[in-house]
């Protein structure tokens, strides 16, 4: 981490902001990272594979930050194909140019580098980064992000003895290039070959605890295809945070973690000194696979006696009831000292209802997935950059309806327009027989309701308008719906996507263009001076240096 005039000057140069405006915010520290992205041999399931490493690591390095920190990440692409990183949950306030997805940011060419400028503005909690292009996520390149509260901001639990990141996910033994070819050919990937915990297979990772101490475990599902359940042999866990929100501190024997979701739990080492198993298993799958890590007591006398703890398998009601039990802690501080509940989200009138229905389809003889009948295809130029330069013909606003059409699916670059400062109700409708997991970049939203069956206006009668949790990724159960409220307070071009990675890759995503006629930097930053330009924007200049 660096402070002072040199760091301020670097940030001013890269963002293109006046030095005075950066000096005003100069109290926030800077954390500089240099990352080399390369291929390397990995053996997560005992079989040699080509993995994507960051500084030689799989998973990639942990990012440690504090609210409002500026993160300067210089990424060198040593792969043989273009590469991008995205930052799941980091809201990129006023700056979707840095979001790192195909619709916002030009890829880093092989042999080149790009410096991301991020700020954890008014955020706390558990997040992660991942490669967003070309099915690279199936090869690694992901890692955890912790954003801690500032020292003067109260946290609703004592400091833990240690803070552990737990990246769980399903895994294929097949290289990502072959998986990508299968999808491009219209074939299904099939069932994953195994599960990983922090990039390791069965009993491959150990967490050490001291008797009597309490530890924080930050759990994220970084997988491609399946919801997972996690449990700690002989221990209960207390939920304290979900994706940047402090929660009511409910105890659970196990926890469902859907694709792309993050949770923080506290575990007290209050059992006899043994080595206990941390068990992760698949949910809602006909075939159940599992893996374990080791919870090692420092005074361990060996393996804990007794069988591994069993968990839920295909029970949807169990998971739905657990999801409904997760509540916002109204009296706890968030990133600022005022209580989270001081924002009464349920009392704000909504300005628009958007209904989004996912579907599977065959288009041109190949498997595709769609939202409101539109299967998204990436344009030849990032949408945000085309929007900035007013390049015609790249995309059109309104190419996706704000309600289901129930017609045949078709291919289109899919962009929905919404107005800055609006307050929308979004209903995710799932008529398929598999769980969906939805993420919205640039935002957190309140989960106000979920239930089986079809949504109708009468469904609002069961909404939780008081203490629904605020988060950035939410599940939708089979033949069910989930409703959220979201304030449109972040101008930009934001990806709305399935976290089931094959579905995302094959079209179950679109972009939400949050627009204002204002050109004030108070509403949106201009394009960064170091932005890469590609497609129809190639050869243009960002702004004079």
Automatic annotation (TrEMBL):
Keyword field contains Signal? yes
UniProt key word Signal = yes
- Record's SUPFAM superfamilies? Cupredoxins (SSF49503)
> Keywords of this protein's UniProt record, alphabetized?
Signal
> Which Gene Ontology molecular-function terms are recorded?
copper ion binding; oxidoreductase activity
Q: Name one Pfam family in it.
A: Cu-oxidase_2
Looking up InterPro entries in the UniProt record yields: Cu-oxidase-like_N, Cu-oxidase_2nd, Cu-oxidase_C, Cu-oxidase_fam, Cupredoxin, CuRO_1_AAO-like
Look up the domain of life of the source: Eukaryota
The region annotated as signal peptide is 1-26
Where is the Plastocyanin-like domain positioned along the sequence?
A: 37-150, 163-299, 381-517
**Which protein family is it in?**
Belongs to the multicopper oxidase family.
Kindly provide the name given to this protein in its UniProt entry.
L-ascorbate oxidase-like protein
Q: Which organism is it from?
A: Triticum urartu (Red wild einkorn)
């Amino acid at each position: 981490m660096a402070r002072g005039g040199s760091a301020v000057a670097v940030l001013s140069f890269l963002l293109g902001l006046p030095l005075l405006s950066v000096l005003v915010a100069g109290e926030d520290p800077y954390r500089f990272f240099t990352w080399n992205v390369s291929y390397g041999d990995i053996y997560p399931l005992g079989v040699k594979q080509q993995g994507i490493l960051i500084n030689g690591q799989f998973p990639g390095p942990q990012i440690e930050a504090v609210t409002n920190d500026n993160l300067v990440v210089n990424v060198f692409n040593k792969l043989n194909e273009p590469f991008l990183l995205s930052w799941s949950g980091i809201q990129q306030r006023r700056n979707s140019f840095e979001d790192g997805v195909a619709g916002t940011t030009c890829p880093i060419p092989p042999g080149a580098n790009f410096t991301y400028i991020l700020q954890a503005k008014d955020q706390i909690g558990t997040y992660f980064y991942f490669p967003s292009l070309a099915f690279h996520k199936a090869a690694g390149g992901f890692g955890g992000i912790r954003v801690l509260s500032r020292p003067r901001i109260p946290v609703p639990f004592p400091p833990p003895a240690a803070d552990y990141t737990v990246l769980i996910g399903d895994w294929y033994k097949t290289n990502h290039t072959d998986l990508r070819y299968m999808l491009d050919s219209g074939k299904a990937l099939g069932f994953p070959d195994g599960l990983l915990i922090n990039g390791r297979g069965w009993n491959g990772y150990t967490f050490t605890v001291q008797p009597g101490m309490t530890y924080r475990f930050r759990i994220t599902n970084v997988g491609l295809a399946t919801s997972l359940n996690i449990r700690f042999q002989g221990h209960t866990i207390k939920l304290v945070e979900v994706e940047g929100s402090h929660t009511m501190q409910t105890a659970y024997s196990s926890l469902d973690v859907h694709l792309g979701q993050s949770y923080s739990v506290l575990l007290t080492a209050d059992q006899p000194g043994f080595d206990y198993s941390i068990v992760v298993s698949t949910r809602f799958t006909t075939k159940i696979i599992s893996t374990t890590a080791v919870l090692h007591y420092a005074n361990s006398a060996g393996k804990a006696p007794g069988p591994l703890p069993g968990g839920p398998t295909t029970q949807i009601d169990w998971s739905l009831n657990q999801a409904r039990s997760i509540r916002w802690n109204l009296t706890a501080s968030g990133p600022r000292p005022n209580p989270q509940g001081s924002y009464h989200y349920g009392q704000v009138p909504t300005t628009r209802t958007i209904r989004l229905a996912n579907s599977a389809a065959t288009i041109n003889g190949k498997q595709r997935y769609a939202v409101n009948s539109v299967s998204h295809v990436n344009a030849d130029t990032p949408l945000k950059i085309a929007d900035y330069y007013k390049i015609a013909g790249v995309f059109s606003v309104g190419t996706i309806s704000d309600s289901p059409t129930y017609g045949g699916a078709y291919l289109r670059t899919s962009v929905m327009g919404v107005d800055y400062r609006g307050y929308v109700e979004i209903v995710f409708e799932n008529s398929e027989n598999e769980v969906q997991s939805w993420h919205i970049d640039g935002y957190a939203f309140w989960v106000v309701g979920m239930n089986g069956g079809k949504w109708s206006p009468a469904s609002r009668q069961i909404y939780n308008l008081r203490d629904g949790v605020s988060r950035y990724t939410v599940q939708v159960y089979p033949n069910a719906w989930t409703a959220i409220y979201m304030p449109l307070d972040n101008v930009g071009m934001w990806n709305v996507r399935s976290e089931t990675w094959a579905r995302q890759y094959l079209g179950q995503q679109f972009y939400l263009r949050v627009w204002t006629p204002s050109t004030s930097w108070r509403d949106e930053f201009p394009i960064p001076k170091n932005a890469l330009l590609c497609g129809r924007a190639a050869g243009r200049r960002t702004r004079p240096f």
